[in-house]
Amino acid sequence: MRKQIVRREFKKEFADSLHELHPLLRRVYAARHVQSSQELDRNVESLLSYQSLLGLETAISLLVAAVQQNQRILIVGDFDADGATSTAVAVRALRSFGADHVQFLVPNRFAYGYGLTPELVAAAASFSPNLIITVDNGIANHTGVEAAKALGIKVIITDHHLPAPTLPPADAIVNPNQSGDVFPSKNLAGVGVIFYVMLALRRQLANENWFEKKRIPEPNMSRLLDLVALGTVADLVQLDHNNRILIHQGLRRIRAGQCIPGIIALLELSDREFSRAVASDLGFAVAARLNAAGRMDDMSLGIECLLCDDAVRVRAMARTLDQLNEERKSVEHDMQAQALAALNKLNSNLQTDLPKGLCLFDESWHQGVIGILASRIKDRFHRPVIVFAPGNTDELKGSARSIAGLHIRDVIALIDVQHPKLIQKFGGHAMAAGLTISRDSLDGFMKAFDSIVSTQVTESQLQHTLMSDGELLADELNLDVASMLRDSGPWGQAFPEPLFDDTFRILEQRIVGDKHLKLRLGKGEKILEAMAFFVDTDKWPNHRCDSIRAAFRLDVNEYKGRRNIQLIIEYMESMEP
Question: Is this structure's pTM higher than 0.90?
Answer without folding.
Answer: yes
